[in-house]
Amino acid sequence: MLGIYALQKFSTLDFPGKLSAILWFSGCNMRCPYCYNPDIVFGEKKLEEDEVLNFLKRRVGFLEGVVFTGGEATLYPNLYNFAKKIKEMGYEIKLDTNGLKPHTIYTLVENSLVDYIALDYKAPKEKFYKITSSRKFEEFEKTLKYLIDKNFNFEVRTTIHTDLLDENDINEIIRDLKQKGYRGIYYLQNFFDVEKTLGNVSSQKRKLDISKLEKLIPVELRNF
Ligand code: SF4
Questions:
Q1: pLDDT tens-place values along the chain, 224 residues long
Q2: Is the shortest distance between the CB of 97 and ligand 1 below 6 Å?
Q3: Which of 21, 126, 127, 149 has the most CB atoms less than 10 A away?
C-alpha cells in the first residue's frame, strides 16, 4: 500500500530558508535509471499518518516547514486531507514532484495546501520516455504551464547524467522554458555516485559542458 515511507525529523537544506521535516512517500509513476531511491519507489507504507502528525504537533514553533518527497508524493491517495491537517498546524509545505499528476497539483495549489513546488523537468519530449519510462510528457507539461500561468512560487530542475542527457537536451529544455514564460531559476543537479540506483547506472563518463548552454534564462548548478 502506498503511504509514508520515512520521516527525516530535521533538515536545513531541503526547503529554502526553512527548518523542515521531510516525508518520503512510497511509490512512483516513473522509472528513472539514475534514481537513488529504488527502495522507496518499490516500497510500501511504513508510517501511519497519526505518528507523523503527532510528531509535527510536538515540533510546532520549532520547525517551520514540511517537505513532501519520494518516490512521488502526489500518488498518495489521502494527500489532500493530510496536507490540510499539516497546514492547520501552521506549517508551510514544499512538494517535490515529477508533475505527472496535474489535477492533484491544481487542487493543492487552489486550496492553499502547498507553498512551494520543486518540479522535475526530466527530459525533453523526445527523450522523456527513455529517461522516465513514462509516456505522459503532456501531463507534465500541463503542470508546468499551470504553475507558470499561476505565477506560483516554484522551481524547475533537471538531474544531469551525461550518459543520458547532453547539452543539446538541456538547451532544448532551456528554450522550452523560455518560450513558455518561466520566470524562475532553472536548476541543474549533477548526478552523484551512489551504491544503488534504480537502473544500475554507472558513473558519468564526463561532466556537462556548461559553456555550451544557451543563456536565455538564469541557470544555477547544484553538486557540480
Ligand atoms: S528519480 Fe524518477 S523514479 Fe526516482 S523517485 Fe524521482 S521520478 Fe521517481
A1: 999 999 999 999 999 999 999 999 999 999 999 999 999 999 999 999 999 999 999 999 999 999 999 999 999 999 999 999 999 999 999 999 999 999 999 999 999 999 999 999 999 999 999 999 999 999 999 999 999 999 999 999 999 999 999 999 999 999 999 999 999 999 999 999 888 999 999 999 999 999 999 999 999 999 99
A2: no
A3: 21
Taking the model in full, what pTM does it have?
Answer: 0.98
Domains, the chain, in order of start with CATH, read 4-222 (3.20.20.70)
Neighbouring CB atoms inside 10 A of 101's CB total: 22
Candidates 23, 25, 29, 30: which one to mutate for ligand 1, based on the most atoms within 8 Å of Cβ? 30
Closest-lying ligand 1 atom to the alpha carbon of residue 34: 1
Label the pairing between strands 219-222 and 65-70.
unpaired
Euclidean distance between the first and the last CA atom of the chain, given in angstroms as a whole number: 37
**Is 31's C-beta closer than 6 angstroms to any atom of ligand 1?**
yes
The candidate with the shortest Cα–Cα distance to 109, out of 154, 164, 173, 60, is 154
Instruction: Find out whether the beta carbon of 173 lies less than 6 Å from any atom of ligand 1.
Output: no
How far is residue 141 CA from its own chain's centroid?
14
